[in-house]
UniProtKB/TrEMBL annotation:
Belongs to the short-chain dehydrogenases/reductases (SDR) family. Keywords: Membrane, NADP, Oxidoreductase, Transmembrane, Transmembrane helix. The chain crosses the membrane at residues 147-167. This is Tropinone reductase I. PANTHER family: NAD(P)-BINDING ROSSMANN-FOLD PROTEIN, TROPINONE REDUCTASE. GO terms for molecular function: oxidoreductase activity. InterPro entries: NAD(P)-bd_dom_sf, SDR_fam, TR. The keyword NADP applies. The keyword Membrane applies. It holds the Pfam family adh_short. It comes from the Eukaryota. SUPFAM superfamilies: NAD(P)-binding Rossmann-fold domains.
């Protein structure tokens, strides 16, 4: 099968569309590159315009089909706008949604405040769940949708001074199973990758 820039010739993502949140750094950046290398057309987002522009230029030079826009995923209206933009870009269908954007804060459980709670639970869980809701009709329209949550082993085992992070990822792992069951009828696969913290 045809692909761009090497990799395993036994499979391809040619003709597939993918939205990867938080694609300008770390795991998200690697996912964007791998998808594009296997022929997918990728859309990503970042809160940082300069960082996004630099990554888009880098990917263009590599011959990858990657577009993106600035989006603060913690803001509900910006998530609405992101999905509107992405579905227009992909002509009303999304094959793959990767919920990668996340945040953490390390503190003793007794030290977490109400102000700490919202950013962690909001970014790691609420944002991902809402994007799944928004993307559902477009994943269904593709006929072969796939959602991937980038979770953490912290959602499976105890991690010191990371109780809120662990709670957000544990919740993500649980909802992965629920959505996989609920949306199987729509030909949408839902999985979580439990990365090391």
């Amino acid at each position: 099968m045809e692909q761009i820039g090497g990799g395993d010739a036994r499979w391809s993502l040619k003709g597939m569309s993918a939205l990867v949140t938080g694609g300008t750094r770390g795991i998200g950046h690697a996912i964007v590159e791998e998808f594009a290398r296997f022929g997918a057309v990728v859309y990503t987002c970042s809160r940082n315009q300069k960082e996004l522009d630099e990554c888009l230029e880098e990917w263009k030079c590599k011959g990858f089909q990657v577009a993106g826009s600035v989006c603060d995923l913690s803001v509900r209206t910006q998530r609405d706008k992101l999905i509107e933009t992405v579905t227009t870009y992909f002509d009303g269908k999304i094959n793959i949604l990767v919920n990668n954007a996340g945040t953490t804060q390390l503190k003793e459980a007794t030290e977490f405040t109400a102000e700490d709670y919202s950013p962690i639970m909001g970014t790691n869980f609420e944002t991902s769940y809402h994007l799944c809701q928004l993307a559902h009709p477009f994943l269904k329209a593709s006929g072969c949708g796939s959602i991937v949550f980038i979770s953490s082993v912290g959602g499976l085992i105890a991690v010191p001074v990371a109780s809120l992070f662990a709670a957000s990822k544990g919740t993500m792992n649980r909802v992965t199973k629920n959505l996989a069951c609920e949306w199987a009828k729509d030909n949408i696969r839902v999985n979580a990758v439990n990365a090391l913290p």
